[in-house]
Task: inverse folding
């Protein structure tokens, strides 16, 4: 049986309308995305809140200033790395409530404190709740004084030997022995 011309025309019209609806839906999605971007830009320009600038923590402190401030803080007794970082931030006038900055300062401070520990200027007293506890080395020397063993330097043939304290020692042929 042959279809009625009216039904064929209606089907064609229905397919056109479906195509137009899909086009309008894509345009509507694009319009929604554009609206979201414009709204975000308006929030940026109308914002009353202070936007925190990026801070380069390597330029906050002068050379050796971190260690001087840490020594000042450790005079009162042992402190954790977090406490030292907050002390440094307070001394420099930084926002101590900024957790991201505090963590960055603490991570940077750990390296400096470990280097000072290798030099014997500070001592790590273990950990408290997973955070290193530091104290001044003078306190550590009072707790356990190392034995006194002056070692001599190698004999160079022309100069007398000296120990590490600069005291003259007996001349020995090309050996390094305790006094």
Result:
């Amino acid at each position: 049986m042959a279809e009625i011309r009216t039904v064929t025309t209606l089907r064609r019209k229905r397919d056109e309308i479906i195509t137009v609806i899909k086009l309008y839906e894509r345009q509507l999605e694009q319009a929604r995305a554009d609206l979201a971007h414009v709204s975000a830009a308006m929030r940026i320009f109308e914002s009353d809140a202070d936007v925190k600038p990026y801070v380069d923590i390597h330029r906050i402190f002068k050379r050796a200033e971190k260690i001087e401030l840490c020594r000042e803080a450790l005079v009162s007794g042992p402190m954790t790395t977090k406490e030292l970082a907050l002390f440094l931030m307070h001394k420099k006038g930084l926002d101590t409530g900024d957790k991201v900055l505090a963590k960055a300062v603490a991570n940077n401070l750990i390296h400096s404190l470990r280097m000072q520990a290798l030099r014997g200027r500070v001592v790590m007293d273990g950990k408290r709740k997973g955070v290193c506890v530091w104290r001044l080395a003078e306190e550590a020397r009072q707790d356990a004084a190392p034995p006194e063993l002056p070692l001599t330097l190698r004999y160079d043939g022309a100069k007398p030997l000296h120990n590490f304290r600069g005291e003259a020692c007996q001349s020995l042929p090309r050996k390094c022995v305790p006094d």
